[in-house]
Automatic annotation (TrEMBL):
InterPro entries per UniProt: Asp_de-COase-like_dom_sf, MoPterin_dinucl-bd_dom, Mopterin_OxRdtase, Mopterin_OxRdtase_4Fe-4S_dom, Prok_molybdopt-oxidoreductase
CDD domains: MopB_CT_Fdh-Nap-like (cd00508)
GO biological process: respiratory electron transport chain
GO molecular-function terms, A-Z: 4 iron, 4 sulfur cluster binding; metal ion binding; molybdopterin cofactor binding; NADH dehydrogenase activity
Name this protein carries in UniProt: Molybdopterin-dependent oxidoreductase
Record keywords: 4Fe-4S, Iron, Iron-sulfur, Metal-binding
């Protein structure tokens, strides 16, 4: 049987793999060097899952029942026309996903703004990368998760990981860190922290205070790279004015991290020849997430790391196409090429590519959390179209989200399985999954990849691109404006991105098929790509990076007598995101079949709980029931829950929808909770 070289359907590492039918074997690709995690090894089982949807479903008398494609699409179009006629274009909203290919993300954004005319589009990457993106734009003038290839990390002497548990979330990544001493910032003693030379465990929500304490030590102990700061940055004095007040002993009182360990971290970084500072969701998913990341960027700039060969700052993107998904039009405020939707020149360029008038394009819409909250409200959308996301499990304050979905006049979900969100839809459309069609993705290092078709989709299943064209033509658009062929869509994406920050205009399918390593920007067909950004200058007009003056304020919600503990959430090795994919693979479910809550043994004892017992975890927004795991290394004031599970096991029944004022990121990573026995 012939094989196809392709990429894993899960995280942004986008490991290289080979598919022979549905059998997976790893291949030697730079980011994974022949390795795969357990999810990657078992990903072929998704292609033969018995839960696959193969026919459209329409809700009749309260039940989802099979229908023809023509009937389903006609119904959707009729509902959309009716709502737009009665309530205007913003009565229809679109919610996308960070796993969609570049072509799908691009065409979905175009569909929303041209076929629907709505400003109400955002995507689940808002829950993932938005704080790091906002901080990167402020500091460097451009946002690319890693502005250097992953393989550069192999030469690092020291790597600081802030809020990253890569040993579980992207295990093949860890081989690139084998030669480095690791400093791991995490309130939990994770498998990644177990590998660290120095593990710093701050109280949840105090990441910025710790970054300020380490920055203070860097300057006070003589590790400031003054020549770099003078030549390549701006704003140091303002940032230092704040950090000067955060001597390590003060930071210790707030974070619980010993002042001596803060100084040790500063010395390890300052004395290293090659060093990197990397952030991930643990430090980003806060109502202060942008400021948190700015704090770690300030530390990296003070050490002279960004834009220097062999060192740097970066963010570990989470979702498979979290990078490309936001670059090409799914975000409420962006057009293709990472252009701002309120920039007249950007609107004119994209409108010309699309063949529409610039003034016909809507302005910025609501961010993801705000969009979900507005559903069914008096001034909010009456209909929602969901492509590639499972918001009932993944969004904060998820019972409220469930209620808002119920308040809609119409809900459409396009998915390959009946997710918890699809179960609530009025129409469900069965679409192709990862290995059933060609498409490009952009991994965590800004490398554009071609994920190739390896198997045929089941009879009755259609591509998202085909769905968008069918709906667009029913809404009066010319068919040629919405191509169904991925290479054709990509050709248009190239033109739309040309001249933008994320310029793909020099990328072609032929170059990708030939195996070229193309990291954006790639501004011409002759350009080799940009594996290492900022070596000569940063993307601000003056070429300098910016220190950003930020100060610690703490979490949006503090513990009190009723809710004395803090909860944090995250991933486990065997599952991914909302679990809609991994909960359908027996090998993975056998290892982690249900939600659990990690608790310090003393904390469990005070609540009258023992190992293996079901506990009730309650916050101001809701409660979840989870199996107790006693973990002696956990902070006594903290509990941890994975967020992959549905129903009463949803960790996001608890989480706080408080938003970062810049990125609009919800505060997933800390909320006040109480712990009790289920029968209490």
């Amino acid at each position: 049987m012939p094989h196809v070289d392709t990429h894993c359907p899960y995280c942004a590492l986008q490991c290289g793999m080979r598919l022979t039918g549905t059998r997976v074997t790893p291949r030697d690709f730079p980011v994974n060097a022949g390795g795969l995690c357990q999810k990657g090894w078992t990903s072929g089982e998704l292609l033969r899952s018995g839960d696959r949807l193969t026919t459209p479903l329409i809700r009749r008398d309260g039940e989802l029942t099979p229908a023809s494609w023509a009937e389903a699409l006609d119904l959707v179009a009729a509902k959309l026309r009716e709502l737009r006629s009665s309530h205007g274009p913003d009565s229809v909203a679109v919610f996308g996903g960070g796993g969609l290919t570049n072509e799908k993300a691009y065409l979905l954004g175009k569909f929303a703004r041209v076929a629907l005319g709505t400003s109400q589009i955002d995507y689940n990457g808002r829950f993932c990368m938005s704080s790091a993106a906002a901080a990167g734009l402020k500091a460097f003038g451009a946002d690319r998760g890693l502005p250097f290839p992953v393989t550069d990390l192999a030469d690092a002497d020291v790597v600081l990981l802030a809020g990253a548990n890569s040993a579980e979330t992207m295990p093949p990544f860890m081989q690139h860190l084998r030669g480095a001493e690791l400093i791991v910032i995490d309130p939990r003693r994770t498998p990644t922290a177990e590998l660290a030379a120095l593990h710093l465990a701050p109280a949840p929500g105090t990441d910025l205070a710790l970054a300020l304490g380490i920055l203070h030590a860097v300057v006070a102990e003589g590790h400031l790279d003054k020549s770099y700061v003078d030549l390549r940055t701006a704003g140091f004095d303002e940032a230092w004015h704040i950090a000067a007040a955060w001597w390590p002993e003060r930071a210790e009182r707030v974070t619980g991290v010993a002042a001596a360990d803060q100084r040790r971290a500063a010395a390890m970084l300052g004395e290293a020849h090659n060093a990197y500072v990397l952030t991930a969701r643990g430090t980003e998913q806060h109502a202060t997430g942008t400021a948190n990341v700015s704090g770690w960027i300030n530390l990296a700039l003070a050490l002279g790391l960004p834009g220097r060969a062999g060192s740097g700052f970066g963010c570990l993107t989470g979702q498979g196409n979290g990078q490309g998904g936001r670059e090409h039009g799914q975000k409420a405020d962006q057009l293709p090429g990472y252009r701002k939707i309120d920039d007249p020149a950007a609107r004119e360029h994209v409108a010309r590519v699309w063949g529409v008038a610039p003034e016909s394009l809507p302005g910025p819409g609501r961010s993801a959390t705000e969009l979900l909250e507005a559903l069914g409200q008096e001034r909010g959308p009456k209909a929602l179209l969901v492509f590639g996301s499972n918001v009932v499990v993944s969004a904060p304050r998820s019972r409220r989200v469930q209620d808002r979905l119920s308040a809609l006049d119409f809900l459409l979900v396009a998915d390959f399985v009946l997710s918890e969100t699809a179960e609530r839809a009025d129409v469900v459309l069965p679409v192709t999954q990862w290995a059933e069609e060609d498409g490009t993705l952009t991994n965590l290092e800004g490398r554009i990849l071609l994920r190739r078709k390896a198997v045929d989709a089941p009879v009755g299943v259609r591509s998202d691109l085909g769905v968008l064209r069918e709906l667009a033509t029913r809404l009066g658009q010319p068919a040629e404006r919405f191509p169904v062929d991925a290479p054709t869509v990509f050709e248009e994406l190239r033109a739309a991105s040309k001249g933008g920050t994320a310029d793909y205009s020099g990328v072609t399918y032929d170059r990708l098929r030939a195996g070229e390593a193309l990291h954006w920007p790639v501004p011409s067909a002759e350009h080799p790509g940009t594996p290492r950004m900022f070596l000569d200058r940063f993307a601000h007009p003056d070429g300098r990076a910016r220190f950003v003056a930020v100060d610690h304020t703490g979490p949006a919600e503090l513990p009190d007598a009723e809710f004395p503990l803090q909860a944090t959430t995250g991933r486990v090795l065997q599952h991914y995101q909302s679990g809609a994919q991994t909960r359908r693979i027996p090998e993975l479910v056998d290892v982690v079949p249900e939600v659990f809550v990690e608790v310090h043994p003393d904390t469990a004892a005070r609540a009258g709980l023992v190992e293996g017992e079901r506990a009730r975890v309650r916050s101001r927004r809701g409660e979840t029931v989870a199996r107790v795991r006693c973990v002696a290394s956990l902070r006594p004031d903290l509990v941890f829950l994975p967020f992959h599970f549905p129903g009463e096991g949803r960790a996001n029944l608890l989480t706080n929808p408080a938003l970062d004022p810049v990125s609009r990121m919800p505060e997933f990573k800390v909320c006040a909770v109480a712990l009790s026995k289920v029968d209490a």
